[in-house]
Design a protein that fits this description.
- This protein is mainly α and 471 residues long.
- It has two domains: 163 residues, EF-hand (Recoverin, domain 1), CATH 1.10.238; 285 residues, Mitochondrial carrier domain (Mitochondrial carrier fold), CATH 1.50.40.
- Helices cover 66% and strands 2% of the residues.
- It is built from 22 helices and four strands.
- It has a two-stranded antiparallel sheet with strand order 1-2. Strands 3-4 form a two-stranded antiparallel ribbon.
- Helix 4 packs across helix 5 and helix 18 packs antiparallel against helix 19.
- It starts with a helix and ends in a 5-residue tail after the last helix.
Length: 471
């Protein structure tokens, strides 16, 4: 690999180091202009298997003394020398017995001193991600080679790198809200990430809104006797309300992102405090429990918006003039309870979805890592693939409950006698349409997963760059 071709030349801190830096610089300087810019460094890092977002920009920014946006050889070699000195101090702090090597017990002890408790297996995983000679110990050369082009240099930064590169299972998952360091909270980095995530979600939902609307349409109206396929359903909606009708309900779907994200984040912090003794590090199971409770709290708070979204998605031309008009008519004609129809199956559906999504994601990720022991970071494409497959599996398990929830939300305008409970509605659907009737509309739901994840990721990365977030 390019990585093993380049880095052996940068392994020594002796009289030859200047020459080895020169060789490395010349290989990175692909256009031979005597400078290495962010694009060239990023291409080199990718070829080495280093995928950390923002690493190239951070390295250039740190070493660029004359502020011309690139590194000449003097700036390049000076940055590497200073970075190696910092890495050496961190290495020595980990090497408790001063034998020139770091083993699993030293990893555990050093992390425990910072309040991060990991198992022996996790400590071995960390070592394997850096271990070149297969000894399950890491010497200075292996340590330097692994972190030479990673902006992290102190132990706190390196722990964050290990967490985000998915080596450790610290309860970090899509089901758990983002955790922010005290530095990120004080600097305002947390709100920038929340803003970036909200905007990415808004663009993603808008891009896949037609598929979401046809899904809801099929969930409510499709039966054995009234078969609605994907193309026919889209054509029917366009004929009824024009092309823009494909985006009905998208406005409130986008509006509910910000409050849901904010509530989840704020309540997550509070639940963590309630579940942990003051001064102690929060355990993995407590973090997961806090995340689940935060998700349920956010869902409870914004659920009326979910009902409004379903009603607006299914509305006929002229039925409601907008979100406020829809809310007024529901309140006037059906009462406050109508805003929580389908709440129980919605809450129950979170459990199998989150559990299976997390389990499949972790299994796929760990399988990849077991076959690629030389890398701590699976990379963007692998993680997106794992996320897409795990999300699909979670949807398969929870979809019947999602269908029942949507039916109950849509039927709230009927007389009380015609509003069946969750159990009765499930039985009715199975009796009338068979088992597969519980999966009406799942095709457009699956179709929107990959574009939704891809759009969200791309927009999120651009927003982070625009807001000056470097991770």
């Amino acid at each position: 690999m390019f990585r093993t071709f380049l880095l052996p030349t940068a392994r020594c801190l002796d009289a030859d180091s200047e020459r080895s830096y020169q060789d490395l610089f010349e290989r990175l300087d692909t256009n031979k202009d005597g400078k290495v810019d962010v694009a060239e460094l990023r291409a080199g890092l990718k070829a080495m298997g280093i995928f950390r977002h923002g690493a190239a920009q951070k390295i250039v920014s740190s070493g660029d003394k004359n502020k011309d946006g690139s590194l000449d050889f003097s700036e390049f070699s000076k940055y590497l020398k200073e970075h190696e000195k910092k890495l050496l101090l961190t290495f020595k702090s980990l090497d408790k017995n001063n034998d020139g090597r770091i083993d699993a017990s030293e990893i555990q002890l050093s992390l425990a001193e910072l309040g991060v408790h990991v198992s022996k297996d996790d400590a071995v995983k960390i070592l394997q991600s850096m271990d070149i000679d297969g000894t399950v110990m890491v010497d200075w050369n292996e340590w330097r080679e692994h972190f030479l082009f990673c902006p992290a240099h102190n132990l706190e930064d390196i722990i964050r790198y290990w967490k985000h590169s998915t080596v450790l299972d610290l309860g970090e998952s899509l089901a758990i809200p983002d955790e922010f360091t005290e530095e990120e909270k004080s600097s305002g980095g947390w709100w920038k990430q929340l803003v970036a995530g909200s905007i990415a979600g808004a663009v993603s939902r808008t891009g896949t809104a037609p598929l979401d609307r046809i899904k809801v349409f099929m969930q409510v109206h499709a039966t054995k006797s009234n078969k609605i396929d994907l193309v026919g359903g889209l054509r029917q909606m366009i004929m009824e309300g024009g092309l823009m009708s494909l985006w009905r309900g998208n406005g409130i779907n986008v509006l509910k992102i910000a409050p849901e994200t904010a509530i989840k984040f704020m309540t997550y912090e509070q639940y963590k405090k309630l579940l942990t003794t003051e001064g102690q590090k929060i355990e993995t199971h407590c973090r997961f429990m806090a995340g689940s409770l935060a998700g349920a709290t956010a869902q409870t708070a914004i659920y009326p918006m979910e009902v409004l979204k379903t009603r607006l998605t299914l509305r006929k031309t002229g039925q409601y003039s907008g979100i406020v008009d829809c809310a007024k008519k529901i309140l006037k004609n059906e009462g406050i309870k109508a805003f929580y129809k389908g709440y129980i199956p919605n809450l129950l559906g979170i459990i199998p979805y989150a559990g299976i999504d997390l389990a499949v994601y972790e299994s796929l990720k760990n399988t990849w890592l077991s076959y690629h022991k030389d890398s701590a970071n699976p990379g963007v494409l692998v993680l997106l693939g794992c996320g897409t497959i795990s999300s699909t599996c979670g949807q398969l398990a929870s979809y019947p409950l999602a269908l029942v929830r949507t039916r109950m939300q849509a039927q709230a305008s009927l007389d009380a006698s015609d509003q069946p409970s969750m159990n009765i509605l499930l039985k009715k659907i199975v009796a009338k349409d068979g088992f597969f009737g519980l999966y009406r509309g799942i095709l457009p739901n699956f179709m929107k997963v990959i574009p939704a994840v891809s759009i969200s990721y791309v927009v999120y990365e651009y927003m982070k760059t625009g807001l000056g977030i470097s991770k």
